[in-house]
Specification:
Blueprint lengths: L4 H9 L2 H16 L1 E3 L3 E2 L4 E5 L8 E8 L7 E5 L3 E6 L4 E7 L1
């Protein structure tokens, strides 16, 4: 069997140990999740530290109690915090997944 240059290059870059490390890193990244304790909205931005070390791919804000008149929220996400602004008195949880 004769290999062309591209096939030789592909074989040389297929280091099993490196592939295992990359796969392990990917699995660890995919398994990182965060769930906050119950938070209470103040009407101002609140920084909720998630500890994921990276910006979450998915963020879910789930209300557990809504005051009379309803509730709204906005959020931004970063590598350290999910910043949530929720209606004063609204209770909520933050879920984040890397």
């Amino acid at each position: 069997m004769v290999l062309n240059d591209l096939e030789k290059e592909m074989l040389n870059t297929m280091n099993p140990a490196a592939m295992e490390t990359q796969l392990g890193d990917r699995i660890n990244r995919l398994e990182r999740e965060f769930q906050s304790t119950e938070q209470t909205g103040t009407g101002s931005a609140q920084a909720i530290a998630h500890g994921l070390g990276v910006e979450p791919r998915i963020v879910i804000i789930s209300f557990s109690s809504i005051p009379d008149g309803g509730a709204t929220y906005t959020y931004t996400k970063g590598t350290a915090n999910v910043n949530v602004t929720a209606t004063t008195g609204a209770k909520y949880f933050v879920y984040a997944k890397a």
